[in-house]
Amino acid sequence: MSVPDEATLASLDAQWRAANYLSVGQIYLMANPLLAEPLRPEDIKPRLLGHWGTTPGLNLVHAHLNRAIVERDLDAIAIWGPGHGGPAPLANSWLDGSYTATYPDVTRDAAGMARLFKQFSFPGGVPSHVAPQAPGSIHEGGELGYSLAHAYGAACDNPDLLVACVVGDGEAETGPLAASWHANKFLDPVHDGAVLPILHLNGYKIANPTLLARIPEPELDQMLRGLGHDPLYVGGERPAELHRELAAALDTALDRIADLRWAAREQGVRARPRWPMIVLRTPKGLTGPAEVDGLPVTGTWRAHQIPLADPRGNPAHLRQLEEWLRSYRPEELFDADGRPTAEVLERLPVGDRRLGANPHANGGLLLRELPLPPLEECAVEVPTPGAESHEPTRVLGGMLARVMAATAERRDFRLVGPDETASNRLQDVYRATDKVWQTAILPVDEHLGHDGRVMEVLSEHLCQGWLEGYLLTGRHGLFSSYEAFAHIVGSMANQHVKWLRTARRLPWRRPIASLNYLLTSHVWRQDHNGFSHQDPGFVDQVLNKAPEVVRVYLPPDTNTLLAVAEHVLRSRDYVNVVVAGKQPCFDWLDLDAARAHCAAGAGIWEWAGSEGGVGGAPPEPDVVLACAGDVPTQEVLAAADLLRRHLPELAVRVVNVVDIARLMAPQDHPHGMSDRDYHALFTRDRPVIFAYHGYPWLIHRLTYHRANHPQLHVRGYLEEGSTTTPFDMVVRNDLDRYRLVMDVIDRVPGLAVRAARLRQRMAETRYRHGRWVAEHGTDLPEVADWRWGALA
């Protein structure tokens, strides 16, 4: 291992001390940034928020990455897994000028330093995490576990990029991070960049030791090597030794990365690389107070957040804080005007090479339009509603295959999912690309390749983390999942929504491609897998989030799915949830009608209703049958068919909803309908029977303020699941066509007596269905063979 010369080491130490000084200042100070006079209580923030313990380690890594970037002209970004260490990247971006370039009022002088300090964790300022406000960040880290997945996603299809990722030892205990150690087996050394994991062992979480810091180092080494990594070890608490060891280890790691790339790209070596990583062991809160109030702090859990709890009210704490700040010798680091000295600046990157200014960390700068095929070349023919059926996601797979082919050279589109691409009927994408796989490939395997752009691993967390990292660095993608198991990444979705909501308010953050979920194998057609696979609640969770960011679509057939897919793949800065079936589904709309319907978000299907009735069209229908989702749409149309045949005088309106947010008011969601538009569809006072794909109370929540809400009756999933037939699933949840007809009879004035026999017949059919299913294991012939009645 080579060691930098003494001048370089001195410069590294100056950078580190300057960043540590700026970090402590952010946590504590609101005035007197250069300690021009002794600290006074009024210089201290009234509320002390932030995390010191991880920060000096992050500053150490940042300084050494800066040196490597300058010496090797690296194109690099950094992901800071211990996101609570927000002071570190903020301090370093202020030092290299990228913070001032982003926020010109935070100048690189004493006045700007004062602003940097005061704004941290202060009302109207910036959060304590590495949030979107931090230049160079694509990972907040407020919720732990996702850093390494984000890093690998960022490296995919970025062949010249180095992604350094600091993994905190507390974060390393999470399930998502545990799965992420396997991401090295999906990184293609030819087409992808490199990820350099840096496992930072500082020994403690908030109040407990960390597992990986306490197990014997040989055991840790066996674990990391068993996971396919090639670890280098650095440790200590003496700054001079730490600088020498870390500089040498970083150079060794970068040399190994260069050798592995050269072997793969120039010599054609296809063996899976054993990528290097660094294990950095330093005491928690290194360079901070060794003891406070007679208790040990540095190297213990007490250093995690605020080592000196009350410098504003405790004179001893105030004196100790000033001693701590002066221990960094700020007079050597900043001139009289507060500008960093030459020794601090001489080995900092400039321009786009700065970690706070690399365009990959503001991915919208690099984003290109996705070359989508004309939908006319993908759509299915629909000469008459309900005449034919297709598997919607299979047709979508053909469209995605064309997207894959069109991006073969530019490599900026990926499909991720947990071992379900073929199960979800998207396997046509394999005509254009393989599934990426760097381990052994056997003759029996299909569609595996070193350079594939379909990513499958049975960890939803890893799939989402990959895609988020990919999108945040300026590319496009789609996450396909069984509907019930989208909940596994519910918290990740929350974090991404929060990121997008914040980023939208920052003019310097350019829009990125939306995070698109395709939820299929859904609740109504998981009859073969049973109750464990039946849960439509992800939609409810998403619609609780920032309305300017979230969108939910329930296309009822193949062409509407294509129209929705085209829209979401072109969209920016959203989290789009598309729920669509993979089983054969009737085709209701041709492409033109599907596009118009999806653009409206909700509309009357005049061909499906019977508003004309006998003697001409009334001003309003007697009843509205509404639906959202493919199976509810089929049941509503079957109910409308029954009503047309048995109660021809009844005026029935059929309304289909694709964009579920259309039910909301405009003040609650940008897609919400005005009362006038809503009542034009659903009327002000007529009964509305709404068949909904998910939990029925969501529809009530979205429409509670509408004038006709007392007339709204919603049928949906009632947590009645089983391994059973498709139609039995809807019967068990009272969503079936016969129940919907009974609901109409119960709620339209005058029908309870006049249509009593029809109601009884519907109830008897439901009973007969139960006996038939129990005996035959199949649905009633009149259900299985049903076609839209207009064909008769």
Automatic annotation (TrEMBL):
- An example Pfam family from this entry, by short name, is XFP
Q: Give the EC number(s) listed in the UniProt record.
A: 4.1.2.-
Domain Xylulose 5-phosphate/Fructose 6-phosphate phosphoketolase C-terminal span(s) in chain numbering: 582-788
Kindly list the cofactors needed: thiamine diphosphate
Q: Which UniProt keywords apply?
A: Lyase, Thiamine pyrophosphate
Q: Identify its protein family.
A: Belongs to the XFP family.
Q: How is this protein named in the record?
A: Probable phosphoketolase
